[in-house]
């Protein structure tokens, strides 16, 4: 949805420039407008989803060396839930660290 809205705005701006009296500016703007429309509607809405569906998990494959170098991001907290479930008392190691840091001495 966001891609369509951005493409629509960009296309409107480029078509506005395409109507300019300068032939150089008009031809460049027309080319950009066509390029934005093709990219948004053909490439991003048809070809990429089809390619991802055909490739399946191979589309999300990451080389081992790169996987070791990149940091692990857990935006939804799945690792914290697994850690809490694995703890014998039902509390995670981070909970214990937090209790230790906030304990009144």
Automatic annotation (TrEMBL):
<dbReference type="Pfam" id="PF03176">
    <property type="entry name" value="MMPL"/>
</dbReference>
<dbReference type="InterPro" id="IPR004869">
    <property type="entry name" value="MMPL_dom"/>
</dbReference>
<keyword id="KW-1133">Transmembrane helix</keyword>
<keyword id="KW-0472">Membrane</keyword>
<feature type="region of interest" description="Disordered">
    <location>
        <begin position="80"/>
        <end position="105"/>
    </location>
</feature>
<dbReference type="GO" id="GO:0005886">
    <property type="term" value="C:plasma membrane"/>
</dbReference>
<protein>
    <recommendedName>
        <fullName>Membrane transport protein MMPL domain-containing protein</fullName>
    </recommendedName>
</protein>
<keyword id="KW-1003">Cell membrane</keyword>
<dbReference type="InterPro" id="IPR050545">
    <property type="entry name" value="Mycobact_MmpL"/>
</dbReference>
<keyword id="KW-0812">Transmembrane</keyword>
<feature type="transmembrane region" description="Helical">
    <location>
        <begin position="28"/>
        <end position="55"/>
    </location>
</feature>
<comment type="similarity">
    <text>Belongs to the resistance-nodulation-cell division (RND) (TC 2.A.6) family. MmpL subfamily.</text>
</comment>
<feature type="domain" description="Membrane transport protein MMPL">
    <location>
        <begin position="3"/>
        <end position="64"/>
    </location>
</feature>
């Amino acid at each position: 949805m966001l891609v369509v809205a951005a493409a629509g705005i960009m296309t409107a701006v480029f078509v506005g420039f395409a109507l300019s009296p300068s032939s150089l500016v008009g031809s460049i703007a027309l080319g950009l407008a066509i390029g934005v429309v093709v990219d948004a509607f053909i490439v991003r809405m048809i070809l990429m989803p089809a390619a991802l569906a055909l490739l399946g998990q191979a589309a999300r494959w990451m080389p081992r060396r790169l996987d070791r170098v990149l940091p692990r991001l857990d935006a939804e907290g799945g690792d914290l839930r697994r850690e809490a479930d694995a703890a014998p008392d039902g509390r995670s190691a981070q909970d214990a660290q937090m209790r230790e840091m906030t304990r009144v001495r």
